[in-house]
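Researcher: Go.
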Amino acid sequence: MISKNEIKTISIILVFYILIESIGITCPIKFLTGVSCAGCGMSRAFLSALKLDFISAFHFHPLFWLVIPAILLFIFKNKIPFFKVCFIFIVTLFIIVYLIRMFQPNDNIVVFNPKSGFIYQVIHKLIQ
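Model: Structure:
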């Protein structure tokens, strides 16, 4: 089933996520770079789905529903002969949706604003 190392890794990720959320950083990638990641909006989508507001959930991230099957896929990856094909399909879907959302001017969830990123701001202050 799930190994001790996988449980340890999941635990570390959860603790890290709780820590950064508690100081107001909702996404470490967006905070550091100013660019949204392919999973941007996923947390808000799940919160909307928990409230049974599926229209908002799909608005925040149209692939939110795919996370649970993906987790099950990883848990049972040794028992699924076509694991790699499924994994590549899921990654491809996320990339396609990400690119579509990145180039939609009205999408305020996925953003490309490197100047607002922490890394840019630090470098900019060091140069000045």
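Model: The chain has one domain: 4-115.
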